[in-house]
Amino acid sequence: MKVLIIGYGSIGKRHEGVLSQFKNIKTIDIVTKQNLDNKNTFLSLKKVTNLNSYDYFIISSPTNKHFKQLKYIESKVSNKIIFCEKPLFKTDKKLKIKNNSVYIGYVLRFHPLLLKLKKILNNEKILSANTSCGQYLPTWRPDSDYKKSYSASKEQGGGVLLDLSHEIDYIEWLFGGMKEIKSYQRKISDLEIDSDDYLSLIAITKKDIFINLNIDYISKITHRTIKIDTIENSYTLDFIKNTLLQKNKNGVEKKYNLPNLERNYMFKSMHKDILNKKKNICTFREAKNVMKTISTIQEQNNG
Predict the structure, then answer these.
(1) How distant, in Å, are the alpha carbons of 117, 166, 205, 210 from that of 122?
(2) Is this model's pTM higher than 0.90 or not?
(3) What are the respective helix, strand and coil percentages of the chain, to the nearest 5?
(4) Are the CB atoms for 186 and 214 separated by under 8 Å?
(5) What is the fold of 108-261?
(6) CATH number listed for the domain at residues 2-107
(7) What is the pLDDT of residues 64-103, one digit of tens each?
(8) Residues 3, 25 contacting (CB under 8 angstroms)
(9) What is the reported pLDDT for 11?
C-alpha cells in the first residue's frame, strides 16, 4: 500500500509516524515545501507525478486548504481511501463524493473509555450532557510561537469552534444531531490572535437530550470532560486523566481507569478502523452534518 500525506506540520508528522508502523504500508510520500532528507516529496499536490499510484491519501494541511485538496483528489482518482483531518472544511461547502471513500479525523471516537461509555449508554435513558474542553493556546505547541500557528488565524481556519470540533462530533455521534442551538462565539482574551478563543452553547439533540458545551483557548488548567445524566446514573469521563466514573441513584460508584494510555493509541486505532472494519470512523456524511452545526453557530455569531 502506498500513502501520500498532504501537509507536513505536527499532525502530518504524527500520521507518518503511526502509519510507518503498519506492515502493509510500503511507501509514504509527502506533499510539502519543506526540504526533507531521505523522503520522497512534492512541492504541491498538482506536482505529484502519478496520483493514481497511491492507495491512501492523508490530508493534514491547514483547514482552509481541505476543500480544494479533497475536491482535486476526488476528481483525479477512483476507488481510493481519503482521510481528511478535522474539521472537514473552514465553512460548509457543497461537494459530492462519488469516486472514493472519505473519512474524517475525529480521533476522540477511538478513546477506549468513550467507546465504553457509548456502549453503556445504549441501555440508558439519557437526559443531559455537559461537555467542556479548554487549554491555554500558548501551551499547545510549546516549541513554536502560538501567534504563527493556524489556530491563531481566522483566515487559515483556526479558532476554537473549528479546532475543537471534536466535541461537536462526539456529541452528535452519541446523542444525535443538535437543534435549537443558542451560542456565543467570541475572542474574549488578551491572546494575540484574530480567531475565536471561546465558545459556549446550549442545544437540544434530535433524541431530545439537553446539551451544554463550552470550549476555549484560555484556560490555564487544561481540561477535557463530558458529564452525562441519565435516569439511573451519572457519568464523568475525563479525557486528560483517562478516567470514567459512574454513580447510580443509591450512591454506588464504579470507576474505570486507563492511566497508561499510549500517546498514539487512538491514532493507530483510527487508521486500523479506516483500513479494515470502518466501524467507528467519522464518515463524510457525518462530517458534513458537523459542518452544518458549525455553520449554524457561525451564522449566529457573525457581525
Answers:
(1) 9, 21, 16, 17
(2) yes
(3) 30, 30, 40
(4) no
(5) Dihydrodipicolinate Reductase; domain 2 (3.30.360)
(6) 3.40.50.720
(7) 999 999 999 999 999 999 999 999 999 889 999 999 999 9
(8) yes
(9) 94
